[in-house]
Specification:
- The structure is a single chain.
- This protein starts with 9 loop residues before the first helix and ends with a helix.
- It has eleven helices and no strands.
- The protein is an all-alpha fold.
- Helix 2 runs parallel beside helix 3.
Length: 239
């Protein structure tokens, strides 16, 4: 239980009803109580950015003015820096690109202007790179085609310009080659007709031209064979 008598805000806040013991109290070791205190008294937040308690600093960081946020850029606690990643002006986010905390860098990757995301292309954490792959301009995704992580490459395959998907035809992951088969220009599907994964061939059959379908109607997989024959019948009917 906190001692209101020794609190520096006893006279100016407690007596005016702007804090309440056990409910809205900056001295409490309770995030909920601290949050309620600063919500009522945001003008006092700046005085707690150097507090010994990390949670008090983190909550105070939500209420201080943007120009004062940089004072916390080197805070030792990642929760405080995560608040900064959400609140810093976009043109100051570069300061957190190399932060040691993954969540901080993910937030940076989510907020940075798309044209500045290349600074995070080689981040050591796959989740950060996945955010980058989702937002980077599609025409600049080439550097991520050979990313070591499957999920990152899947994001690349979903966004790479169709004319560039030929660079991923031989990806080791069948899920990625299925995405390629779904998006690549139909005339390029011939390279996937003998893919070792039946799902890739099935996706190719959904979009293939007549000549390719005549190959796939003899496929070893019954589902691929059926789709190819069904599409050939539809073509014959339309002709």
């Amino acid at each position: 239980m906190t001692d209101c008598a020794t609190c520096p805000h006893h006279e100016d806040r407690l007596e005016k009803g702007r804090c309440k013991p056990g409910d809205a109290c900056v001295q409490a070791m309770s995030g909920r109580q601290i949050e309620r205190f600063f919500r009522e008294n945001p003008d006092l937040a700046q005085g707690y950015t150097g507090d010994d308690f990390w949670e008090r600093r983190a909550i105070a960081a939500r209420y201080i003015s943007q120009p004062r946020l940089l004072e916390l850029i080197d805070d030792p606690d990642e929760v405080v820096r995560r608040v900064l990643a959400y609140r810093l002006p976009v043109d100051e986010l570069y300061r957190l690109i190399g932060d040691s905390d993954r969540e901080v860098r993910i937030t940076v990757a989510d907020r940075l202007p798309a044209e500045q995301l290349e600074a995070l292309v080689n981040d050591h954490d796959y989740l950060v790179r996945k955010y980058v792959a989702r937002r980077m301009p599609a025409g600049r995704l080439f550097r991520m085609i050979c990313d070591t992580d499957r999920e990152v490459r899947m994001s690349v395959a979903r966004r790479l310009p169709p004319e560039s998907l030929g660079l991923m035809l031989n990806d080791v992951e069948p899920e990625i080659r299925r995405i390629v088969a779904e998006r690549i220009h139909p005339e390029a599907l011939s390279a996937l007709l003998d893919d070792p994964d039946w799902g890739v061939r099935l996706q190719a059959a959904e979009r293939a031209s007549r000549g390719m379908l005549e190959v796939l109607e003899h496929d070893t997989d019954p589902d691929v064979k059926e789709v190819a024959r069904q599409r050939l019948r539809e073509m014959d009917t339309n002709d």
